[in-house]
Amino acid sequence: MASLASSSSSSYLKLVHYPSAFDGIGRRGRRIRKNNSDSLKLTRSSLTDDTFSLLHAAHHTVDAYIKSGMVIGLGSGYASGIAIQYLGQKLRTGALKDIVGVPTSVGNASEAAKAGIPLNRYQDCSQIDFAFDDADIIEEGTLVSVIGRRELQGEESILQEKSILNAANKLAFVITESLYKGGLDGSVPVLVQSLNRMEIAEEIDDLFLGDAEVWRRSSIGQADPLGGDFPLVTREGHNVLDVIFTSPILSLAEVAKSLDKVDGIVDHGIICKFPCTAVIATEDGLRIVDSLPRNAMEAL
């Protein structure tokens, strides 16, 4: 389906909000710049630029979107870990109260418990008010994203992570600007039934003929198209196929629609979620991009 793929030693931050402006169909962007101030007291002295920017982005996500009494989906990854620690700090100081966290993995459940965040299981939640997460890549303009590219750690589950993000009333991804772009490349993880994985892999290969290769993910050792001697089996008993695109992906949403039609595919790592916000860490500060449903755009 060719149509689918084609420094100073110390500084401080002050949040300066600029008027919102639409920067394209279905998305609204604004920038938050960094200036010298003691308002947040975050220092660069022992941090790389990327780490410092992500720290700023993670803190902004908690400050801007989380209110007392909310049920929060707690994402997985480096930026999410920073946000979890900061959320715990705000609970300890009393700046936020009555927060309940819903972890997307065993690892971030442990981080959240150490930070003092009360937890609940996804299955026991009637609603999730807001969720934050890392993303492996986000498509510029649409904010359609991919999760699950990185190696799964311990009891991590793409299924659980995606379910929690989709269940949230509002979602924000915290990323660096290198992960927000058009003409995407790389892989999309696909969860498949283990018994007929070969037939499913062949069907996916035919679907994106000439534009992608299909490899079964290995748990350890050398990877190969069959997953090596130790193919990965998720905690739900599925294999992970990495659909590695060799041509630019022109539309992640179209890729998702095509994958959804293949029998035996349980789910995949593409997330198409409204409303969604990308909190993008840049060298000049933060760029905030909001996705809006097309009918909302037509009403403006």
Approximately how much beta-strand content do the residues carry?
Answer: 25-35%
Report the sheet with the most strands, covering strand number, pairing sense and barrel closure: 9 strands, mixed
What fraction, in percent, of the residue positions are helical? 25-40%
Gross morphology:
globular
Q: What's the order of the H and E elements?
A: EEEHEHEHEEEHEEEHEEHEEEEH
> What kind of assembly state do the chains in view correspond to?
single chain
Number of helical stretches of at least 4 residues: 7
- Radius of gyration, in angstroms, nearest whole number: 20 Å
Whole-Å distance between the termini?
35 Å
Class computed from helices, strands and strand pairing:
alpha/beta
Mean pLDDT value? 82
Count of DSSP strands: 17
Which regions are unreliable across 5 or more consecutive residues at pLDDT < 50? 6-27, 34-46, 294-300
Task: Pick out its properties.
4-stranded mixed β-sheet; 7 helices; alpha/beta; 300 residues; 9-stranded mixed β-sheet
Give a description of the structure.
The chain has 300 residues and is an alpha/beta fold. 26% of the residues lie in helices and 28% in strands. The protein has seven helices and 17 strands. The strands form three sheets. Strands 1, 2, 3, 4, 5, 6, 9, 16 and 17 form a nine-stranded mixed beta sheet that branches. Strands 10-7-8-15 form a four-stranded mixed beta sheet, sandwiched between helices. The protein has a four-stranded antiparallel beta sheet with strand order 12-13-11-14, with helices on one face. α2 links the parallel β4 and β5 (100-103). α1 (49-65) crosses α2 (78-93) and α2 runs parallel beside α3 (106-115). The radius of gyration is 20 Å and the shape is globular. The two termini are 35 Å apart. 38% of the residues are buried. Residues 6-27, 34-46 and 294-300 have low confidence and may be disordered.
